[in-house]
Amino acid sequence: MSDSDRSRNGKHIHVVAGVIVDARDRILLARRTEGRDLAGLWEFPGGKVDPGETPEAALVRELREELGIEARVGTPVIAVPQQYPHKRLRLDVRRIDAWTGTVKGLDGQALVWVPSHKLASYAMPDADRPVVAALQDPDRYLITPEPGEDAARWLAALRAALDAGVRRVQLRAPAFAVGDPGRWRTLVERALAHVRDTGAEALINDDVAMAEAFGIGVHLRAPRLRTLSSRPLPKTQLVIASCHDLEELRLAQSIGCDAAVLGPVLPTASHPGAPGIGWERFVELREQVALPIYALGGMAVGDVALARSHGAQGIAAIRGLWPG
After folding, report:
1. Handedness of CA 129, 276, 138, 224 (dihedral sign)
2. Which residue pairs, CB below 8 angstroms and at least 24 apart, start in 31-40?
3. CATH number of the CATH domain containing 222
4. What total number of domains does the chain contain?
5. pLDDT tens-digit profile of 69-87?
6. Are 231 and 256 in contact (CB under 8 A)?
7. pLDDT above 90: percentage of residues in the chain
8. Is the pLDDT of residue 290 over 90?
9. Which residues pair with 296 in a beta bridge?
């Protein structure tokens, strides 16, 4: 049986959940009660969408029944497809703009208000994990192009991308790094000054030693990922991996990567004639791991919402995020 066939087995359930934030900027989690699947785990409150019901109406109803509040549903956060042993779930998560009433666990469920930075410390179902990342981490992941001979222009473009809101950057220049490693190291030092000045996060392409030296993250190419049995850096430094299939995604998850990049999803100018895996296949792979995943290939800033609707953390791109 293929991975695609396995992903289509089981009942398909549409669940909607809300991100409810209190006056102290804490987020509400509810604990799954005994007798339910995944009992004891913490989740964003909500429930199933009934036949003929819109997700917004379902969320208002569920929050009324479970918490005793009247909620005003806001914008989408992410829609996570997730494969469990006996069901296929689509977790459709929305922000709650406002509510009236007093929050209570009307089904006997425990409730807790959690500061955003502590959400990851709570044991959650697989479908809720990417939601935490969507709430906390950048939705755009810039991959830098080769600097060429004009390093000043490259640095100016990087700064422009950061000033435009990019907050996660992979410093990548394979030809430059191999051809002139000393100059590349100096350019990385200068780039990091801009990254740190704007409060962004930096990763270096496939060079664990340089990541250790500069105290930044590393982006693992798939060949290097396949040689690893454990995370190459401490949790204080990001580790993201390039993945192209389910085996690589599962390996990235098993060694503790913080996220993965999957693609190409759509055709790209850098790979003319290559069709890309498409959004349907992206979803089939996405739903079999709990790892945050960026969609790569043919992506632009305007595709962030589309990517989130397919369960992606956001987009990864060179041309789509690089000024000019």
Report:
1. positive
2. 31/109, 31/110, 31/111, 31/112, 32/109, 32/125, 33/107, 33/108, 33/109, 37/84, 38/125, 40/123
3. 3.20.20.70
4. 2
5. 999 999 999 999 999 988 9
6. yes
7. 88
8. yes
9. 316
Per-residue pLDDT band at 9 (split at 50, 70, 90): low
Mean pLDDT calculated for residue range 31-53: 93
Give the integer Cα–Cα distance in Å for 263 and 116.
29
User: Per the structure block, which two tokens stand in for 244?
Assistant: 């192209």
DSSP assignment letter at 265: -
Cα gap 242→224, rounded to integer Å: 10
pLDDT greater than 60 at residue 30? yes
Question: How many angstroms from the chain centroid is the CA of residue 221?
Answer: 18
Starting at the edge strand found earlier in the chain, the sheet holding 46-48 runs 46-48, 11-19, 87-100, 70-84
Q: Residue 299's beta-bridge partner residues? A: none
Residue 101 lies in a domain: yes
Judging by DSSP bridges, how do beta strands 11-19 and 46-48 pair with one another?
A: antiparallel
Give the mean pLDDT of the chain. Answer: 94
Contacts of 312 (CB under 8 A, 6+ apart): 78, 282, 286, 293, 294, 295
Whole-angstrom CA distances from 296 to 62, 167, 173 are 35, 17, 17
| Boundary residue ending a domain (136, 164, 184) | 136
Give mean pLDDT, residues 168-186: 92
β-pairing, 87-100 with 239-243?
unpaired
Query: Model's pTM, two decimal places?
Result: 0.94
